[in-house]
Design the sequence.
């Protein structure tokens, strides 16, 4: 999978992984983010519900889980 622009990300509530760049040029991945349809904003499980602290620029679907056994 390759990172794609956040403008192409699904906004149907499905989980995606997002990439966020900081002003200093460093970046980081946020797993299991989604577009909150009622709130019209990106959310994740570490979101405090008041403010989304990440600024995603790219996304990709989350990886497939490992096979059992």
Sequence:
């Amino acid at each position: 999978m390759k990172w794609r622009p956040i403008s192409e990300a699904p906004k149907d509530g499905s989980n995606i992984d997002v990439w966020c760049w900081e002003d200093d040029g460093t970046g980081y991945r946020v797993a299991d983010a989604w577009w909150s349809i009622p709130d019209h904003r990106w959310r994740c499980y570490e979101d405090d519900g008041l403010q989304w602290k990440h600024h995603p620029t790219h996304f990709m679907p989350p990886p497939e889980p490992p096979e059992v056994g």
User: Anything to note?
Assistant: The longest strand covers residues 27-36. The chain has a mean pLDDT of 86. Strands lie at 4-5, 16-21, 27-36, 41-44, 56-60.
